[in-house]
Amino acid sequence: MAGIIQPLLLDYIVQDASDRFDHALVNISGELIQYPIHNTIISGRSVRKYVYVKETEAVGKQILGASLMDNKGNTLANTALNVIKNDKGFLIGFEFFVEVKANDI
After folding, report:
1. Which domain of life is it from (predicted)?
2. How many CB atoms lie within 10 A of CB 26?
3. Which residues, in sequence order, are CB contacts of 39 under 8 Å at separation 6+?
4. High-pLDDT (> 90) share of the chain, %
5. What is the pLDDT of residues 38-82, one digit of tens each?
6. What are the CA-CA distances from residue 13 to residues 16, 45, 49 (Å)?
7. What does the alpha-carbon distance between residue 12 and residue 34 come to, in Å, rounded to a whole number?
8. Whole-angstrom Cα distance, residue 59 to residue 77?
9. What rounded mean pLDDT belongs to the chain?
10. In sequence order, what are the residues at sequence separation of 6 or more whose Cβ sits closer than 8 angstroms to the Cβ of residue 74?
11. What's the helix, strand, coil split of the chain in %, to 5?
12. Global pTM?
């Protein structure tokens, strides 16, 4: 018989997953530039992480992608992009949904 997972365990897993993201690497015209996590939103079983490229940075350059990294430099998630940066700020968002299932063993 499968155990019943309690909501508190799911909350712990969501928070632990969120805490593992330390910074981002953004590929701007082939150069990897480190950015801090701009904002984090945890809502229910989802985690959203945002990275912000400021108005004055990378104007006219191509943003090719972004990766979320842990504190040891390991890539945890990435997304491909193909955007020419203008003189406005550019927000890159990542969203993760956590789901846990218990199986009989």
Report:
1. Bacteria
2. 22
3. 49, 50, 52
4. 85
5. 999 999 999 999 999 999 999 999 999 999 999 999 999 999 999
6. 5, 9, 16
7. 28
8. 25
9. 93
10. none
11. 10, 50, 40
12. 0.88
